[in-house]
Amino acid sequence: MKGSLLKRGNYWYIIVETKDESGKRKQKWINTKCEKKPDAEKILRETLTKIDNNSFVQPQRKLAFTDFMLDWLHNVIKSNVEETTWEGYEMIVTKHIIPYFKSKNNLLLQEIQPIHLQKYYDTKHQGDQASGKEGLSAKTLRRHHANIKSALDFAVRMNLIPFNPADRIVLPKQEKYNASYYPVDRLEELFEACSGTAIESAVFIAAHYGLRRSEVLGLKWDCINFEEKTISIKEVRVKIGKKVVVKKPKSESSQRTLPLMDNIERYLKNLKKQRKRDKLLFGEDYDDSGLVCCWPNGSPIKSEYLNHKFKEILEKNKLPHIRFHDLRHSTASYLIKHGVSLKEIQVWLGHSTITLTADTYSHLDMETKKDTAQRINDLFSKEAKGVAQ
After folding, report:
1. Which of 76, 85, 260, 341 could tie 229 with a disulfide, CB 3.0–4.6 Å?
2. Beta strands at 243-247 and 3-8: parallel, antiparallel or unpaired
3. Which domain of life is it from (predicted)?
4. Average pLDDT taken over every residue of the chain
């Protein structure tokens, strides 16, 4: 790349020839902001080197980092992610990132350095002791980081900044989460406690199949095939803001078809008969939603009610506290302890990767490995005794 210098007014300008996408030649003028030619020549050499290395960033108009984040949120990423995902992005950007950086002199996009992002993560993690506000978890901050990194990756691709400062920070160490779960005898107690309540079917089915809350609340009768004895996860019910949306599961692995267990088949057939009686009872007032887990009048059960009622039942029956989602972990723990491989569990639960399964249940998988180690040890102990004799 060749370039030249030309003085206009008080400053020297760099002039380089470039080609647009159609191959047409055009001139690019770059203000060195130098009044002395030797200083301008130095910048000329540096600029030509950067252009040759494809690392030159054309000076842009002043753009605040916060304005850039908003523009990325509404005009770049919104059309590329699901509505539920975008809602999470919006909350992080508008409730956390923008208020913080506006309070820090509202730095320009081109001024953002790794140290600024590092201080953001550290401050959010520590919280505010003066106001008693607790800090955010390392897991939550990883979601913040994902947003910031994605936005700044876009800025790099658009040649707005030369590198991504988010690549150079250190995130707080994430503590490993050990999932809570119920053993089989506790689950039997739970089923008995939930019997006759509005959430009975949701608890019973979720515990047997390890379904997510959104999956069991979105399960419809047309997903149950009594002839082929299968149950399919095709839709989920999720809350976006104040509205409930029915959509496909987030990943392809979550869209799965599982065998219909004998006891679940019997339960569902009895439940379907009850739904028909309810429909006759309510008549025109019946909400024919087609949902398996619903109120007697057919209307959907809200996720907030499910959580509240689940907690209430546990407290009333003096059962150990777990979340509804922990029924899923209970299923996984039962499978692991009975020798089912992590790969099989990944497919059953609909995890996107086996790494996710292994990370979530590594503490339980280690228990089975210890049992295996003990059996091997016992085996060789017997052999050793035989040799000694």
Report:
1. 260
2. unpaired
3. Bacteria
4. 86
Q: Please report the sign of the dihedral spanned by the C-alpha atoms of residue 27, residue 31, residue 32, residue 34.
A: positive
Amino acid at 375: R
Residue whose C-alpha is closest to residue 148's, from 126, 182, 119? 119
- Alpha-helical segments (H) within the chain: 37-52, 65-72, 83-92, 98-102, 114-126, 138-157, 184-194, 200-209, 213-217, 262-282, 303-316, 326-337, 342-349, 354-388
Whether residue 387 is predicted with pLDDT greater than 60 in this model: the reply is no
Q: Which has the minimum average pLDDT: 25-39, 112-126, 219-233, 317-331?
A: 25-39
* CB neighbourhood size of 234 (10 A): 16
Interior/surface letters 8-39, b for 16+ CB within 10 angstroms, e for the rest: eeeebbbebeeeeeeeeeeeeebebebeeeee
Please give the Cα distance from 40 to 158 (Å, whole number): 26
Closest to 145 (Cα-Cα) out of 169, 123, 128: 169
pTM above 0.90, yes or no: no
Task: Tell me the two tokens of residue 355.
Answer: 């790494």
Joined together, the tokens standing for residue 46 give: 């540096």
Is the CB of residue 234 less than 8 Å from the CB of residue 248?
yes
Structure tokens at 196: 């006759």
Give residue 372's Cα distance to chain centre.
34
Q: CA 116, CA 111: separation in Å to the nearest integer?
A: 9
pLDDT digits over 264-288, tens only?
Answer: 999 999 999 999 999 999 999 999 9
Residue corresponding to tokens 């180690």: 373
